[in-house]
Write a structure and sequence with these properties.
The structure is a single chain. The chain has a single domain (2-84), classed as Alpha-Beta Plaits (2-Layer Sandwich). A hairpin with a 2-residue loop joins strand 2 (31-39) and strand 3 (42-49). It starts with a strand and ends in an 11-residue tail after the last strand. The protein has helices at residues 13-22, 52-63, 67-72; strands at residues 2-9, 31-39, 42-49, 81-84. By secondary structure, it is an alpha+beta fold. Strands 2-3-1-4 form a 4-stranded antiparallel β-sheet. The longest helix has 12 residues, at 52-63. The radius of gyration is 13 Å and the shape is globular.
């Protein structure tokens, strides 16, 4: 498993939803869980992937396509913090 946490200072829910809309409605291959929500400084996204390769494929094939829009919303995909996820507990959530 591979986790990715992205903090987006100054990003509102509407800006996050705008980027999300341009990523497409279907669940990316390898995505195990997606969690997002407000922080005191902006917005945070935490994703769990089956592998780092699945995340990299999503990043290059879909997230980078939305990079222009993402940059306008304050999302800097180059600053996403990846980590090896040792524990993932819970039911698979519908996407």
């Amino acid at each position: 498993m591979f986790g990715v946490m992205q903090d987006m200072p100054g990003v509102s829910e509407s800006e996050y939803r705008l980027v999300e809309t341009h990523l497409g409605p279907d669940r990316p291959a390898g995505l195990v869980a997606h969690v997002s929500g407000p922080t005191p400084d902006g917005w945070r996204v935490i994703n769990v992937w089956a592998s780092a390769e699945d995340f990299k494929r999503f990043q290059s094939e879909r997230l980078m396509r939305a990079s222009g829009l993402a940059a306008q919303a304050g999302l800097d995909v180059a600053k996403a913090a990846g980590f090896r996820a040792y524990t993932v507990v819970g039911e698979e959530l519908p996407f």
